[in-house]
Design goal:
313 residues, mainly alpha, 73% helix, 5% strand, globular, Cobalamin_biosynth_CobD/CbiB, cell membrane, membrane, cobalamin biosynthesis, transmembrane
C-alpha cells in the first residue's frame, strides 16, 4: 500500500514527465508502443481465425487476443512499480513513454504550416497522418476542421487519459491504458474485418476513457468559453458515434466558439455526422487555438497535481 509521501512523489512526477515529453518528444527509435504494435499484429495473425468464423467466435477470439496482450503487460508492470526512488523513477518513465502531447502538436502544426503556404498536397498528406477519413478531395477548410477535431479528441487519448490512469493506478494503470488505447487504434474499426474481432478492444477503450474523457471535456470548458462548452457537451456530445469522443469534441468546439462535425468521407462513403459546437465553421487559425486550449488544460491538470502533491507531502 502506497504511503502519502509516495503518492505525493507520483503526483510531482506528472509535470516532470510532461516536461520531458515537451523537450524530447517520443523516442525516435525503439519506442515500446512500436514494438507492442508488431506484437499485436502477430497476435492478430494467430487468433483471428479462418474466414468462416461466426461473429460470436470472432468476438471470443478478439477477447482472447486483448487478454493475451494486456494481462502479461499488467503482470510485468506490477513488480516494476515498486516502492522507493527506483520504483518512482520507473513509473515516471512509463508515464513519459505513454504521453504524446508533443507528437500531437507537431502533427497539427505540420498541417497548419502547409495551409499557411497554400500547399494543399502536403496539407492533405499531413492531416492523413492523424485522421482516418478520406483526405484526397479535402479543401483547406475541411483539412483545418479535421485537424482541430483530431487535436481535441487526441488530447484525451494522448495526454489526459494517460495522466489520469497514472494518477489513479500508477505504472500498471498507465501501461494498461496506453496499450488498450493502441489496440483500439489498430482493431477498433466498425468494418467487416474488425467489427467483431475488434469489439473487445473498442469496448475496453470506451470503459477506460469514460472518466478521462469527461474530465477532459470539463477542462476544455474551464479553459475556454465555459457556458457554450457546457451547452455543446450537454446537447450534442451524446449524439456522436463515440461515447467519449463526443463530449470531448463538443466541449472543445464550444470552448473555442466554432462549429465542427458534419459530413465527412470515410473509405469512399460519405458519413453524416452530428454538428458539434456553435458559431462559425472551423478554419486554419483554429488549429493553433485548439493546441492552445489543450495546453491550457494541461497546465490546469499539472497545477492540480502539484497542489495535490503538496497536500499529501
Amino acid at each position: 500500500m502506497e504511503s502519502s509521501t509516495e503518492k505525493a512523489i507520483a503526483l510531482f512526477l506528472m509535470p516532470v514527465a510532461v516536461v520531458i515529453d515537451h523537450f524530447l518528444g517520443e523516442p525516435r527509435k525503439f519506442h515500446p508502443l512500436v514494438g507492442f504494435g508488431r506484437l499485436a499484429n502477430r497476435m492478430e495473425t494467430v487468433t483471428y481465425g479462418p474466414p468462416g468464423c461466426s461473429a460470436k467466435a470472432r468476438r471470443i477470439r478478439g477477447i482472447a487476443a486483448v487478454t493475451g496482450l494486456l494481462l502479461p503487460a499488467w503482470l510485468i508492470s506490477l513488480p516494476l512499480a515498486g516502492h522507493g526512488a527506483i520504483g518512482a523513477a520507473i513509473a515516471g518513465a512509463g508515464l513519459y513513454l505513454a504521453l504524446g502531447a508533443r507528437s500531437l502538436f507537431e502533427h497539427a502544426e505540420a498541417v497548419r504550416n502547409a495551409l499557411l503556404n497554400d500547399d494543399l498536397t502536403n496539407a492533405r498528406r499531413a492531416v492523413g497522418r492523424i485522421v482516418s477519413r478520406d483526405v484526397l478531395t479535402m479543401d483547406a477548410r475541411q483539412i483545418a476542421a479535421a485537424t482541430v477535431e483530431s487535436v481535441l479528441e487526441n488530447g484525451c487519448d494522448a495526454v489526459f487519459g494517460a495522466l489520469f490512469w497514472y494518477a489513479a493506478g500508477g505504472l500498471p494503470g498507465v501501461v494498461v491504458y496506453r496499450l488498450a488505447n493502441t489496440l483500439d487504434a489498430m482493431w477498433g474499426y466498425r468494418n467487416e474485418r474488425y467489427r467483431d474481432f475488434g469489439w473487445a478492444a473498442a469496448r475496453l477503450d470506451d470503459v477506460l476513457n469514460y472518466l478521462p474523457a469527461r474530465l477532459t471535456a470539463m477542462s476544455y470548458a474551464l479553459c475556454g468559453h465555459l457556458p457554450t462548452a457546457l451547452r455543446a457537451w450537454r446537447h450534442q456530445g451524446r449524439y456522436w458515434k463515440s461515447p467519449n469522443a463526443g463530449p470531448v469534441m463538443a466541449a472543445g468546439a464550444g470552448a473555442l466558439g466554432i462549429a465542427l462535425g458534419g459530413p465527412a468521407s470515410y473509405h469512399g462513403s460519405l458519413t453524416h455526422r452530428p454538428a458539434l459546437g456553435y458559431g462559425r465553421p472551423a478554419e486554419m487559425r483554429d488549429i493553433g487555438r485548439a493546441i492552445s486550449l489543450v495546453r491550457r488544460s494541461l497546465t490546469l491538470w499539472l497545477w492540480t497535481a502539484v497542489i495535490g502533491g503538496v497536500a499529501l507531502a
